[in-house]
Design goal:
The protein is mainly alpha-helical and about 550 residues long. Helices cover about 70% and strands about 0% of the residues.
Length: about 550
């Protein structure tokens, strides 16, 4: 069959499955809408958590980042997977025992303050919208290439699909939909990698293949190092970041993972506390399947791209090149008029512009794999983007309906009215997310690591001290969150987007990039919270007893 036929078939079948599951598991109560009734099996919840976690950033962008930056890209692998260890050991079981299924709910009750709850709602919305806008844009990019529609139309289609099963099914529908989406996205990621690994090295296991030798008897990484040097890039297996920056980025990603509200809420969908810990373990295993494959995909894609395009006549380039040119994510500008593609590190001589986000998606086409494999990749990329978007929508809707309306503005709201408010909030949220996907502000183009920095700077200290510190009071927690989130926002906008006269990496504080500054803002949060707590009224005895209870095995 033709490629387009395969694409329509795979995407049509997967979308039919998602919508069917959402209809079958539609929520009939706020308990089902927010936490799927609390009866999800740990393995299913681990799969859903993995799908919720592995967004378009993990599926599309992470291997693309590694593909271009080489060794430096390892910070994303270490940070994003290491965060789940923190989550399983330090947070998930205790939050589950506390019984509050949203982060603002936990902070509001633990710190006995509506103000603390409102600050947490603001932070949750900021983190979630930063994250979800990129997912909707990712959906548009995938649709624009594979369904041959413009990016805006692709965003509209994605909005309609997510809105249907998120609003109808709530967490119950999203959970079982994400189990199906995990299966789709992991197979879509693995099968091309297995194909290319076998064709290149004879190994069917990509994790082994990318470190093995090719048919010419040369190690792939050694060959890629040589090509990089010839083109003027730094050696692929050498890092260019400072040790401090690598440490800070890794730490920010780890603690940011442990503080992400759409991930934390997942551990309230199981029956008991022990299941929350098991869910984190299963999620880590399911995530590791993709994350250990990502470096292999990065190496295969980078090597294939250079060998296929560099020093080749533009008129003779394969069809996939022209298709990606039409999306605006790949471009050739013939600076010397010879019709030959010059791909080099020197900007004045380089004629090829490549958006790193296309590397995973274009990889099967560059390697000339069968059409059904390319179509499977398209379905997987959409599953990754839509699954995370749905989880984030639920965080946004619950923050507004439960944490803001029911807990602060209108405590007497009925369950039926709260459920209606949650669905209306999700509808408004998906419309806003779609708007930012179509008209992205600056932060959408930034790496999603910034969302983790925001979570690290705001939530992680408040949650950690809320569990393990009897003395942390509401004044300390509120002051810490406000200082942490404000500092991260200032640094992010100054050095990532050029506000306040910034934008030059030479002026980074202590040489720390915006992606790693969440660690500094987190430390500031801890410091301010602890200092303020020393000079303000102590935590009430009832709250101290509550903290002791949730820490009991």
């Amino acid at each position: 069959m033709e490629l387009q036929t395969w694409i329509w078939l795979f995407i049509g079948l997967s979308f039919t499955l998602y919508i069917g599951i959402a209809f079958w598991s539609r929520a009939g109560s706020t308990n089902e809408f927010y936490v799927a009734g609390g009866g999800v099996h740990p393995i299913a919840n681990g799969m859903a958590t993995a799908a919720d976690w592995m967004s378009a950033a993990s599926f599309i962008s992470m291997a693309g980042i590694i593909s271009f930056s080489g060794y430096d890209g390892s910070v994303f692998l270490m940070g994003w997977t290491g965060g789940y260890v923190l989550l399983a050991l330090l947070l998930a079981p205790y939050l589950r025992k506390f019984g509050k299924f949203t982060v603002p709910d936990f902070i509001g009750d633990r710190y006995y303050s509506s103000t603390a709850r409102l600050v947490a709602v603001f932070c949750a919305l900021l983190v979630s919208f930063t994250y979800i806008a990129g997912q909707m844009r990712g959906v548009g990019v995938v649709f624009s290439r594979y369904l041959e529609v413009d990016i805006n139309t692709g965003v509209y289609i994605g909005m309609a699909i997510v809105l249907f099963y998120a609003v109808l099914g709530g967490m119950k529908g999203i959970t079982y939909t994400q189990v199906a989406q995990y299966c789709v996205l992991v197979f879509a990621f693995l099968i091309p990698a297995i194909f290319i690994s076998f064709l290149s090295t004879g190994w069917v296991i990509p994790q082994i293949g990318f470190g093995a030798s090719n048919q010419e008897g040369m190690y792939l990484l050694e060959k890629l190092d040589g090509l990089h040097r010839e083109l003027g890039f730094h050696a692929y297996t050498n890092g260019s970041k400072s040790t401090l920056d690598v440490f800070m980025i890794t730490a920010a990603l780890m603690v940011g993972t442990a503080g992400l509200p759409h991930v934390i809420v997942r551990f309230f969908t199981v029956k008991k506390v022990s299941d929350a810990r098991k869910s984190a373990g299963w999620a880590l295993l399911f995530i590791a399947i993709l994350y250990t494959t990502a470096p292999a995909v990065a190496v295969f894609a980078r090597l294939n791209l250079i060998e296929t395009v560099s020093e080749q006549p533009y008129a003779q380039l394969p069809q996939w090149f022209n298709k990606w040119e039409e999306t605006g994510l790949l471009g050739f500008k013939d600076k010397n008029g010879d019709g030959i593609v010059q791909y080099v590190a020197e900007p004045s001589l380089n004629e090829l512009s490549i958006d790193r986000d296309i590397m995973v998606l274009a990889n099967p086409e560059i390697a000339e794999l069968p059409n059904w494999v390319i179509a499977l990749m398209a379905a997987g990329a959409l599953a990754a983007a839509l699954s995370t978007a749905a989880g984030l929508l639920l965080v946004i809707s619950s923050s507004i309906s439960h944490d803001l309306i029911k807990s602060v503005l209108y405590p007497k709201v009925s369950e039926r009215q709260e459920l209606i408010a949650a669905r209306l909030a999700a509808t408004v949220a998906v419309v806003l997310a779609g708007y930012f996907g179509i008209h992205p502000p600056g932060f959408v183009a930034a790496t999603v690591a910034l969302a983790f920095g925001l979570a690290a700077a705001s939530f992680f200290p408040a949650i950690l001290m809320g569990i393990f510190s009897l003395k942390m009071n509401k004044e300390g927690a509120i002051a810490g969150m406000l200082v942490g989130i404000s500092l991260m926002l200032f640094y992010m906008t100054k050095f990532k987007f050029g506000w306040f006269g910034g934008g030059n990496s030479a002026d980074w504080w202590w040489g720390i990039s915006p992606e790693g500054f969440g660690s500094v803002a987190m430390v500031a949060n801890f410091a301010v919270a602890l200092i303020v707590a020393q000079f303000t009224p102590p935590t009430p005895a009832t709250i101290q007893q509550l903290v002791k209870e949730i820490r009991k095995p």
